Each structure stands twice: as C-alpha cells, then as structure tokens.
Amino acid sequence: MSISPLRQRMIDDMTARHFGEKTQKDYIRCVKNLAVFIGRAPETATTEDLRLYRLHLVQSPLGAASVNSAMTALRFFFSITLRKPLFRVEQPRKLPTVLTQDEVARLLDAAPSAKYKAALSVAYGAGLRASEVVSLKVSDIDSARMLLRVEQGKGRKDRFAMLSPLLLDILREWWRLGRPCAWLFPGQNPVNPMTTRQLNRICHMAAQLGEINKRVSLHALRHSFATHLLEQDIDIRVIQVLLGHAKLNTTALYTRVATSTIRKVMSPLDRLCLTEKKDEPKA
Fold first, then answer.
1. What CATH number has the domain bearing residue 196?
2. Which of 27, 116, 124, 254 is catalytic?
3. Averaged over 41-46, what is the pLDDT?
4. Residues 116 and 10 in one domain
5. Looking at the domain assignment, is residue 276 inside a domain?
6. 219 annotated active-site
7. Which residues constitute the domain of residue 142?
8. Catalytic annotation on 154?
9. For this structure, is 129 an active site residue?
10. Annotated catalytic residue within 17, 84, 219, 223
11. 124 has catalytic annotation
C-alpha cells in the first residue's frame, strides 16, 4: 500500500528523532483519528476543529494521560511536520502507588513460579520499567561488577542498573531451573521475550494472592524502589541515575511519597516548643 507524502514526511521526522516503532504507530493513529473526526485531511484542520476535537477527547472515557498522549502526537504533527503551533491539555499530577516493604515481600512470595518471581524481583530490586525487564538478556547480567545492563531503555538510551546480591541469587536460581539461553525471561516461544502484558498480568495476580489492597501495577514496583531508596537517605541524584530519568524534576516526585523521610523532619512547631522550654528559668 502506498504512503502519502505527508505521512512519509511525518515518519521521516519521527525517525530522525529516534522515535521507536510503537511510538510512531501511536502518533500516526492519533493523526488518523483526527482526520476521521473532522471528516477531511488532517492538515486542513482549523483551530476550531482542534478545539472541538480536544473537547471530544476530554468528554470521552479516556483518562487525562491518554488525552495528553493524543495531543502530544498532534502537537508533533502540526508543530514539526506542518510547522503550526498547537495547545496542551493540563494533566493532574497524581501521587504514584507505593507499596510498603512488607507488601513487596508478600507480592514476590506470591509469584506463581521462579521465572515470574525473578522478573518481579528485577522490577523492584533494580527499579526497571516493564519493557526493560522483558528486554533483558542473560548476557546483560554482570555479576563481576554487580550491574545489570539496560539496552535502549526509555529514550533509546543505554544505562546500568544496580544488581544486589539477593537479586543475583534469585536470578541464578531461575537460571538453574529454567536454563534461559538468550532472553533472560523468554516467552512461550523461547525465540521471543516475555511480553509486558504477560508480566503485568502476573503482577496483578501476585498482588491479589498476596492480599494487597492497592491498585498494583508493575510500575508500582519501580515507584516503590525509588521511594524506599529515598527513605534510606540515598541521594536523589543517584536515584535519578538508577531510574534513567533525564530530568531531576521527575525523580523529585518521590519526595512527596517518601513517608518515613517526611516523618523524620521536625516540625517548626516542635522546635518552637523546645526553644520555649530551653528559655524557661531554672528553679
């Protein structure tokens, strides 16, 4: 099937910026949805068309994150490919779901097999994203330097993640039982890795079996990793590197959920009381 010159130009613009294949497909789909909504070519959309389309998305069952993703795709199409400005939907900043260490232990213990326990342990013990966990190869384990090599993580960047002694033991136990050859966590067909959907499904199952009454996703294990490190007084810039965040502001979100760190801070009211007691005349 032939591709229109405009779509090819958009694809070229995304390729030049190293967008992944999935991102490119998502962006193209968002532009097609706009064309369906207005009933004509997307490049002919007026400001009023875009306003009405945004209103349509906001009033749909889509969440703010999904609406923003669609608008991000359209902003790229108009500002980069067509060189026209576009607007943005404000997305509310919600606190991430964070598990206690006891809840994490119960979730890992409830994993249905050594393979899934190892995969979930990597998500929590190294703070990896779902896509990064399933993309790990056996050769990415560097036991000499106690590191995990993460190839082409978010933003298509390579980095190293921490490999704790306990996580190494868990991975060795999985290797002894499963003998994975290439992919550390192969799928039903060993030629391919496990899918992120499958890993998330196992995570939900383990959370239910562990009787965890929170909305648990695999990303909650990454959130918990960062929060627990912050509560151990690990420098936030170190956590930023371990998570692979490009901006410190993204990592700083965890200061809002690090409850033990918050509890350690002395209120100025308490300091005031201490000062008053200190200033009281002795009998």
1. 1.10.443.10
2. 254
3. 89
4. no
5. no
6. yes
7. 101-262
8. yes
9. yes
10. 219
11. no
Quick one: what percent of the chain has pLDDT higher than 90?
48
**Pair 108, 215 in one domain:** yes
270 vs 214, more confident: 214
Q: Are residues 77 and 134 in the same domain?
A: no
With 70 as the cut, is the pLDDT of residue 96 above it?
Answer: yes
Q: How many domains does the chain have?
A: 2
Residue 25 annotated among the catalytic residues of the structure: no
> Could you tell me if residue 54 is inside a domain?
yes
Considering the domain architecture, whether residues 61 and 181 belong to the same structural domain is answered as no
Selected catalytic residue, list 54, 115, 129, 228: 129
Mark whether 228 is an active-site residue: no
pLDDT at 92 over 60: no
On whether both 145 and 238 belong to a single domain, the answer is yes
In the set 117, 222, 223, 228, the catalytic residue is 222
Whether the pTM exceeds 0.70: the reply is no
CATH code (residue 49): 1.10.150
Q: Of residues 18, 157, 245, 277, which has the active-site annotation?
A: 245
For the chain, what is the HEC assignment? CCCCHHHHHHHHHHHHCCCCHHHHHHHHHHHHHHHHHHCCCHHHCCHHHHHHHHHHHHHCCCCHHHHHHHHHHHHHHHHHHCCCCCCCCCCCCCCCCCCCHHHHHHHHHCCCCHHHHHHHHHHHHCCCCHHHHHCCEHHHEECCCCEEEECCCCCCCCEEEECCHHHHHHHHHHHHHHCCCCECCECCCCCCECCHHHHHHHHHHHHHHCCCCCCCCHHHHHHHHHHHHHHCCCCHHHHHHHHCCCCHHHHHHHHHCCHHHHHHCCCHHHHHHHHHHHHCCCC
- The C-alpha atoms of residue 181 and residue 138 are separated, in whole angstroms, by 7
Judgement on whether residues 132 and 252 belong to the same structural domain of the protein: yes
Residue 211 resides in a domain:
yes
Q: What confidence score (pLDDT) does residue 156 get?
A: 67
* Amino acid type, 227: T
